[in-house]
From TrEMBL:
GO cellular component: mitochondrial matrix
Superkingdom of source: Eukaryota
Phylogenetic lineage: Eukaryota, Metazoa, Ecdysozoa, Arthropoda, Hexapoda
Organism: Drosophila gunungcola (fruit fly)
InterPro entries on file: AlkB-like_sf, ALKBH7-like
The protein, known as: Alkylated DNA repair protein alkB homolog 7
Cofactor: Fe(2+)
BP term (GO), one: fatty acid metabolic process
Amino acid sequence: MLLLRRLAPLGPKFPGVRWRNFSLMEYAGQWSSTEKLQFQADMRVISDFVTAEEEQCLIWEIEPHISRLPYESSHWDDAIHGYREVQRRKWSPHNRSVLDRVCREACGGQVMPFVHILDLAEVGGIKPHVDSTRVIWTS
């Protein structure tokens, strides 16, 4: 099974959190209704968690480094295709504060020393997989 990229949030279930509008979600392959519901039940989307300005600042900091890299056709575990990646430890103070906020919400404040950045090509994709222990948090 392959899940393709997008999802759009809907009305609030909790303050600042939007849930359950999957109109922009695309499933490739065979997904039963039960599998789709199970997958969607584990999602949480926080509306405007990273602002457009914050996103642009992150991109400006990353772009000079990642734009020099070619897109790779496949990953060592065959989970990613059409991508380029970098790992970064040092960030501007503004971007560090954004990443710290993401870390607090997504990982309970526990982080690895490097931020792992993936840039997918237009035709790139990530297959369902379990990450190696070297790239996941302990939460």
